[in-house]
Amino acid sequence: MDSSSHITTLNHNQKTMKNKTPEICATTRNIVRATRVLLAGLFVAGSIASAQAGSGSVLPPEARPHGYSLDDMASAVALFSISGNDEALLPDTPFQIIYNRPDNTFTVKPGTFLYLKFFFINDAEPAIGNFPTDKSGVADYVFGRDQLGGHDFEVEIDGEITSLDSPGYVGGPVPTPNSPDGSENLLQVGAFVSPLKKGTHTIAIRAVFDGEAFVDAVGGPFAAEIVYTVIVE
Where on the phi/psi map is residue 150: left (φ > 0), alpha (ψ -120 to 50), or beta? Predict the structure, then answer.
């Protein structure tokens, strides 16, 4: 399978950003230290599969498969995300966590729920904008034009597109007491996906960040995409 790493830049004068870990990153590690943002993906792994293979569905944000909420998963993956997807820190959960790694291909058994790890941001200094202290500030922070300005969050599963432009898909803030970067709290955008049918499936994730605080911190707006292959057998 042919693959390549890419990022869509919306401002050609912005700082250069590279993918330095298996995760789809919006920034270099140095800029991550300054911005604490990890986009879910910039690693494209093949073309969109035909919907004929059958597909699962993105669950509503209030869903609790296996008793887990999106806040629970934000806590579970916090150190894994901050580490740049160090698999030694991959949490043990009932889900196949979908994250960026060298070939972005996952093989699962029928009946397996997925957790899509979309992007995270934490409050390690210097924090971007006004990081929220509780749920009441999450929507304005992630989607507000004066803050991160996130929009066009999409999940495409075998050609079917679902928008994640809702604060319900933002887990947290959750505490990060053992964070290696000194952060105290983290937000994690993510979604549960119901079990896929047997066969080969493609999941694409997309996002844009162009809010004032984000642009001031990193030098320009960003759009990103990642594509995963999921094989059910």
Answer: beta
Read off the pTM.
0.79
Select from 93, 89, 97 the least CA-distant residue to 115. 97
Determine the Cα–Cα distance for residues 149 and 133; give it in Å rounded to an integer. Answer: 18
Query: What is the token pair recorded at 228?
Result: 């995963």
Amino acid (one-letter) located at 174: V
pLDDT in the model for residue 4: 28
Query: 126: domain range?
Result: 4-232
**Band of residue 55 on the pLDDT scale cut at 50, 70, 90:** low
Q: Return left, alpha or beta for 11; rule: phi > 0 is left, psi -120 to 50 is alpha, else beta.
A: beta
Q: Which two tokens stand for residue 157?
A: 């599963």
What distance in Å separates the CA atoms of residue 55 and residue 61, rounded to the nearest whole number?
A: 19
| Amino acid present at 23 | E
Report the number of distinct structural domains present in the chain. 1
Q: Give the list of residues 6+ apart from residue 158 with CB closer than 8 angstroms, or none.
A: 48, 49, 50, 51, 53, 54, 55, 201, 202
Q: 134-140 contacts: CB < 8 A, separation 24 or more?
A: 134/173, 135/173, 138/167, 138/170, 138/172, 138/173, 138/187, 139/167, 139/170
